[in-house]
Structure to design on (182 residues):
């Protein structure tokens, strides 16, 4: 079974547990912190994977390091360590956050622009495009890309809305080439 499927199953189980205990928001905030910790410290995964340390040492490390987290999150981490699934922790957190965003009607999106966008501009873009993809709002990541020349390009999942100058020029070029080939 692929790591992605396994990570998704753990995320789903944690999501259901959070729903039952009314701790979805708390879990999300703890998991975001946890993801930052694991991304910023690759040594943690190395330690948890290392065969020289016993399972008890690894579990104690998890308990001590994340003692301020809820028992459910700590127990999930211990379970993942016990089953030698440390490498899926970051993926599992990503899937959990996706589930939370779906539940809230939020989608992650990348917006490409020539310059950094202001918060007001990002808000307007979110309000304009969220209904077009069936969401309440968009969680925008602004990517500055001078190659688009002007305008915007928005990517939400696998959908692209291209209102950039370079995109319009490419479309005009394709029309001219196809008209000349007739």
């Amino acid at each position: 079974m692929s790591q992605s499927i396994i990570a998704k199953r753990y995320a789903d189980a944690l999501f259901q547990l959070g729903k039952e205990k009314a701790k979805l928001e708390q879990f999300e905030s703890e998991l975001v912190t946890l993801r930052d910790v694991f991304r910023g410290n690759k040594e943690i995964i190395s330690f948890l994977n290392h065969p020289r340390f016993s399972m008890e040492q690894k579990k104690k490390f998890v308990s001590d390091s994340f003692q301020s987290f809820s028992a459910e999150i700590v127990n999930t981490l211990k379970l993942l360590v016990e089953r030698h699934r440390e490498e899926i922790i970051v993926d599992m957190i990503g899937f959990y956050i996706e589930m939370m965003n779906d539940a809230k009607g939020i989608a992650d999106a990348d917006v490409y622009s020539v310059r950094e966008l202001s918060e007001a501009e990002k808000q307007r873009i979110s309000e304009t495009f969220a209904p077009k993809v069936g969401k309440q709002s968009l969680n925008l990541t602004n990517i500055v890309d001078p190659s688009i020349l002007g305008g915007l390009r928005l990517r939400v999942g696998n959908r692209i809305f291209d209102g950039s100058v370079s995109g319009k020029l490419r479309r005009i070029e394709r029309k001219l080439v196809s008209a000349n080939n007739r």
About this structure: Residues 7 and 92 are 4 Å apart (CA to CA). The mean pLDDT is 90.
